[in-house]
Amino acid sequence: MEHHPAAARLTEAATSAVQQHGTGNLLRILLLVMILGCVLTAWFLLRGYKRKDD
To answer: Residue 23's pLDDT is what?
Structure first.
């Protein structure tokens, strides 16, 4: 398994946030990112169904 320094930094930042502020803020951010990802995915998939009847 390859070591990724960026992933290690993200993990360290998440661990630091949990230790300082508890899990509430981390879960809020995670939920927001998940919702935005779902909206963008739905928009991307559904935009192909639009028809132009000229």
So the answer is: 74
